[in-house]
Amino acid sequence: MSLVSERPCQEYPLDMIQRATDNFDESNLIGKGGFGKVYKGMLYSGWNMTVVAVKRLKPGSKQGVQQFHTEIKMLSMCRHSHLVTLMGYCKENEEMILVYEYMSRGNLAAQLFKFPNSGLRWEQRLNICIQAARALQYLHTGHSDMVIHLDVKCSNILLDENMNAKISDLGLSTIIPANQREALTTFVQGTRGYIDPHYRKSNKCSTQTDVYAFVVVLLELLTGTHVTSGRVIPDPDVTHLAKWIQQQISNGSLNQIIDQSIVHEIAPNCRNSFAKIISKSLQIDPSKRPLMSTVVAQLEDALAMQTGTNPSSSLVDGDLHGYFNRFDTTDTNSDDLDDHFNPFSTHTASHDPGEDFNIFSMHANANAETSDNHDSFNIFRLTSRLRTPVTDNWKSKCEFMLHQITFHTLVLYFLCTRHFHK
Ligand SMILES: Nc1ncnc2c1ncn2[C@@H]1O[C@H](COP(=O)(O)OP(=O)(O)OP(=O)(O)O)[C@@H](O)[C@H]1O
Ligand SMILES: [Mg+2]
What's the pLDDT band for 375 if we cut at 50, 70, 90? Predict the structure, then answer.
């Protein structure tokens, strides 16, 4: 299907928008951006009331006029559960206004950077990036024409009351028609820190331009810092970010760049695969970066590793070494990305699997006394992840002991009966 307007959005009269926002009262202001101010509003239609976000173009913005039209065109054609819904627009007198569904938790940048320790847990961060990635995948592949967002960044990912993410702002987006399969030459636009270096140099953008920007968002989610703050992530204009993250991986210093409020929550194999996605997708050569569909699949795998629902994260295949290190802040050995530590292959020389469980218990208990809630949470999760193999070990041990008891009872019975017969 090529991109033709499927459901043109509604046109609202200006007086309806004025009523909805108390005539753009500052008390309803919820944000400000390059386009203009954003207000919270209540749209009334009969007995129905809908909460909306109203984005009002600031006067005199030429770039804004173009964005206004692109936004209406794109969001009328592209509808996805993780793309913000444009409910309508208003173009009256000098006013140009966009009306969106209201996302009560605002943008991801505010959640992440303005309120550090705001409680965005690692699993929530993973869910947010998977949802945003799905929306981008839809833009890239949902129609025969490809849509490139060109302004992917944390402040363009909005969150609803359940922390579900939606991509917003398609005002800078562009279409690569179905019959044109190579990159499109345009003037460079986007936001500093997120712009693909290849695009900046060549003026050629493609779906891989969005992959780069999106992965900068992943890096921000991992480090809890803004790409341009210079606090953890080096300036992408002067540093090859892919090489930098690869260095952190091979030096075993990944944990030092991770947001300290979540570092103890991340399962090592999840952390490693997340870092791998980042380093691959930040490569300068766009053809070496994975497609968005691959990024989605890899992020889903990473989530499964985190939650323990993936077979590759079971005790046998997973990185138990990393799990031990989770309680050891020096964590020196678990950063080798391709190193999948098999606890049985190295421990069986001196311990049987049952003893491995005891070793783990000692680590967990020793640390539980001094750890905070996150560690207790990890211990709980780890115990539950270990449950299957441990239960099996104990089951076989019990069965063996039962056999032994039965055998010895029979021997005893045999000897006794012979003795009394004499
Ligand atoms: N649908 C919405 N629901 C709730 N809040 C919104 C909505 N749309 C925008 N906002 C808020 O308004 C802020 C300003 O939005 P806007 O898209 O104009 O600028 P920005 O993306 O923050 O920055 P820039 O103009 O550089 O792209 C957002 O960051 C967000 O907090
Ligand atoms: Mg925005």
Answer: very low
